[in-house]
Amino acid sequence: MRRRHGLFNVSYKQEIAIIRTRFEWTIFLTFLLLMAILPELISLGWLDFFIKVGITLLVVLGLNLITGYCGQISLGHAAFMGMGGFIGAIFLDLGLPFIAVVPIAGLAAGISGLIFGLPALRVKGLYLAFSTLAAHYIIMFVIVRLMGGTHGHLVNPPVIFGITIDSDLRIYYLIFVMVTLGTFVAKNIVRGKAGRAFIAVRDHDIAANTLGINIYYYKLLAFFIGCFYAGVGGLLQVVYFGWASVENYTLWNAIWYLGMIIVGGMGTVVGAFFGTFFIMGLEQLSCLLAPTVGKTFSALAGTVLGALPILVFSLVIMMFIMFEPKGLAYRWEIIKESFRLFPFNY
Amino acid sequence: MNEAINYLITGAANGFIYSMIAIGFILIFKCSKIFNFAQAEMTILGAYIMFAITIQLKLSFIFGILITIGIIIILALTIERVLLRPLIGQPILSIIILTLGLGGFIKGCIILIWGTKMLSLPPLFPKGGVHLGKIATLSYPHIFFFLVCSSLILLLGIYYHYSRGGLAMRVTADDTIVARLLGIKVTRVLAMAWVIASLVGAAGGILLTTVTGIHYTAVEVGFKSMAVALVGGLESLAGVIVIGPFLGIVETLVAGYLDPLVGGGLSEVASFFVLLIVLIFRPHGIFGWKTIERI
Amino acid sequence: MLRLVNVEVKYSEVILVLRGVSIEIPEEKVVCLLGANGAGKTTTLKAISGILDAEDGKVTDGFIEFSDQRIDKLSAEKITKLGIFHVLEGRRVLEHLTAEDNLKAGGLTRTDGNIKADLGKIYDYFPRIAQLRKRTAGYLSGGEQQMLVIGRALMGRPRVLLLDEPSLGLSPLLVREIFIILKRIHHDSKISMLLVEQNANLALETSGYGYVLENGRVVLDGPSEKIIENEDIKEFYLGLSELGSRKSYREVKHYKRRKRWL
Question: Which sign does the torsion angle of CA B5, B9, B14, B15 carry?
Fold first, then answer.
């Protein structure tokens, strides 16, 4: 990320600071404040949207670490989310407190990420995408067979520090806290040794190996951390829906998550935010517009509601790959730069 | 014992269906190193177009075939020109996402135009099949699949390895810039590969849907065909004809013997298990090209 | 005859690489193009063979002519079919094909059927390749790969051969061997060659005429014998000091000699 001209870093601490200037602090705190008082500003229908965005953000942050920073293509991310969701549901049913179930769900997903990330040590690129595809099917099979996936699990509202999380508002705040935490952890990983190692592995793993970076360790670490995030996201989702069901974890979901990091900008934490908000916003929009479209083109088979989000999403993804492959985060940097350099061009 | 042989035969017959669709993947990958995730959707699209022509517009069968061929060719050329030519040499993730997006787009269009109900074409084959004693029955569609699939692969294989056009395709697959510098019109090679792959896919789709009925979820077969393509190796046509029936047999055997133990569902993932294991031992598939990397 | 007249090449519309380069390759002659890294030598070859578009490059001024036909706007395949064969930098064999298939690929532009005879001739020039003909090309050593790509280009019966740094990364012995074969080929079939080389000594020995490229401009050109004698070339490209002897780095004073052509 390029900081403003005239800003000099005189210490390492300054160089890797997540929030460097007072201006950035103001922006950040304003954003936090806005998100905190959001429920006051919007109607309840939209709260559902923001909750879903928050859940997806955690999952996408994780995928961004695996694919965006470490370069390991993972089509199985939805399955890891499902792992966290179902294991979380089972343990919540057993009566464990929510605080304890969070790491358990994360670990379950993380460990399955480790196991199914093992092919990453052997294959690269397209073939890795396929191993993760295979992983998706196998994990979903395990979930369906061994965890009662076809019936789903009823999940009771969890109790944290004595407060029962049983309303949308409370779930929103819970998710808000977790997403903030998750983002900071992700930023910390990314600016430290692990983050640099990930980027090295992504760019040229053989060369990274010759530099002494243990690529096997870091590839597996990326999978573990990324899937941990997915697991926690899955847990939050089953808490919100009150019900763990396999329909939320299809291959199509995994493709959506990948699409979000592409649209947002791979390899940047803020890109995960851009992508998730943009894609889910588009989905919401197309759901809202579907009835209108259905009325105007009544010759169509009346399944506009089902087809329109898919169509819009696919089209958007293709457009982005062709015209803006570095995503919205890149475009945002260019916009910022052009404002800084105004009236010059470069 | 009879049961086992029955499984073997039906499994192999099913496998040829996968092989047929897998040919499409191999053809396009061999020439352009692009894995067309949308191949399954294009396969189904062929069936839908056929349906539209023969049932909705009530034109004759021959007309249906001709118009479907025409539409598929135009579609393939457009996709190749607009979407994929700019993407040669791009990082693999872009290609994966683009073809996935294309697949989704086609699926969305299918749902939009034809809805989600199951449709069916008029049956192409007489009912019943060839009886092999008391052991098994090979239904006519299966026999047809086997014949079409094997002859296609034979023809394509001969073309690839013994003709100049095939050599041009192999050169393009390896290095497009060198291909241009050797006088090969890369754009034409790629367009041809796409057209052939799409036509083969559409034909496979039409045959497939006579057995399963036309529904957009038939794309699940596409993923199994992907497994076939990968296990065999993405550059190998010969691999497809061997691995297709092999995975089909694995699937039916698992369905017959292991599924009752586990309560079902294992046969679906059996192919993917095999895929994982093969990828660990032979990362490029059994017959695929190894990536020759020099630092 | 191949001619570049005032050719200007830009990458991504902003990076100016060639600034008005004029080069002539007469029939049946070997011309060498010298220059340090980044001078624009490879870009010149790419402009001739038409593959600049793969890197977002364009000929923005001037023109390129071959036998009185403008070729700067033609596609790479057409240029190759006219008889201009470009041997890329860094060998670029077709890795997964066998050596023999590589050679056959070189003959794809030929419409006559004499491929077998030409294969024999190539094996005659490069006996090492003959032994390795069934091996996968990607596993050949650097020198063998270089011989393979030269042979592959020759299979097309070219009229002009563009060679980009054939000595790159090869041992001195092997380089000498390859250049002897190149001289033999030129003697036998009288193909004109444009030889881009960093090894100035070798290039000037093998060629009849030379151009020196610096920062996208031709700064010196002339018959190779004259260039070898040129003081500036001796100092800056051949590593010889004014007295014609090896330079002792102890006494190097960088300001001692200025380039007289600037």
Answer: positive
Average pLDDT score over chain C: 86
Q: How many domains does chain A have?
A: 1
What is the overall mean pLDDT for chain B? 81
Question: B3 in contact with C at a CB cutoff of 8 Å?
Answer: no
Q: What whole-number distance in Å separates Cα of residue B16 and Cα of residue B253?
A: 16
Contact A325 B280 (CB under 8 A): no
| C-alpha span between A310 and A314 (Å, rounded) | 6
The residue of B178, B185, B284, B287 whose CB has the most chain C CBs within 10 angstroms, and thus the best one to mutate to test that interface, is: B178
- In whole angstroms, give the CA distance from residue A263 to residue A276: 9
Q: Report pLDDT for A225.
A: 95
Give the length of chain A: 346
Which residues face A88 on adjacent strands? none
Task: Measure in Å the smallest separation between the Cα of B256 and chain C Cα atoms.
Answer: 41
Residue A210 lies in a domain: yes
Where are the extended beta strands (E) located within chain C? 2-11, 15-25, 30-34, 57-66, 69-70, 84-87, 160-164, 192-197, 209-214, 217-223
Amino acid of residue A233: G
Instruction: Locate the chain B residue with the closest alpha carbon to A138.
Output: B269
Mean pLDDT for the stretch of residues B164-170:
87
CA count, 13 A, side-chain hemisphere, C130: 11
Residues of A in contact with B282 (CB under 8 A): none
Residues C238-261: pLDDT tens digits? 766 555 555 566 555 555 566 666
Rg (CA), chain C: 19
pLDDT of residue C169: 85
Looking up tokens 């985060």, which residue turns up?
A329
Tokens of A164: 């029962």
Lay out the sheet containing C69-70: strands in order across: C15-25, C2-11, C57-66, C69-70
Which strands make up the sheet holding C209-214, listed edge to edge? C84-87, C160-164, C192-197, C30-34, C209-214, C217-223
φ, ψ for residue C215, nearest 5 deg: 50, 40
A295 part of a folded domain: yes
Chain B residues with beta carbon closer than 8 angstroms to that of C54: 89, 177
**Residue A140 domain-assigned (yes or no):** yes
What is the rounded distance in angstroms from the CA atom of residue C49 to the CA atom of residue C4? Answer: 12
pTM of the model: 0.82
Nearest CA in chain B to C107: B182
For chain B, the structural domain boundaries read 2-281
pLDDT of B124: 65
The string of pLDDT tens digits covering residues B107-150 is 888 887 777 777 777 666 666 666 666 666 667 777 777 888 88
| Predicted local confidence at residue A346, as pLDDT | 65
Query: Is 70 exceeded by the pLDDT of residue B295?
Result: no
Q: Provide DSSP, A39-68.
A: HHHS-HHHHHHHHHHHHHHHHHHHHIIIII
- Please name the member of B93, B104, B112 whose beta carbon is closest to the beta carbon of A313: B104
- Domain range for residue A185? 45-341
Tens-place pLDDT, residues B12-24? 878 888 888 888 8
pLDDT attached to residue C246: 58
Tens digit of each residue's pLDDT (9 = 90 or more) over C109-123: 887 777 888 888 889
Residues of chain A below pLDDT 70: 1, 149-152, 297-306, 346
ipTM of the prediction: 0.84
Taking CB atoms and an 8 Å cut-off, how many pairs form between chains B and C? 68
Question: How many other CB atoms are there within 10 angstroms of residue C31's CB atom?
Answer: 23
Residues in chain B: 295
Domain with A166 in it: what CATH number? 1.10.3470
Q: Is the peptide bond before A343 cis (omega within 30 degrees of 0)?
A: yes
CATH number for B2-281: choose from 3.30.450, 3.30.1490, 1.10.3470, 3.30.200: 1.10.3470
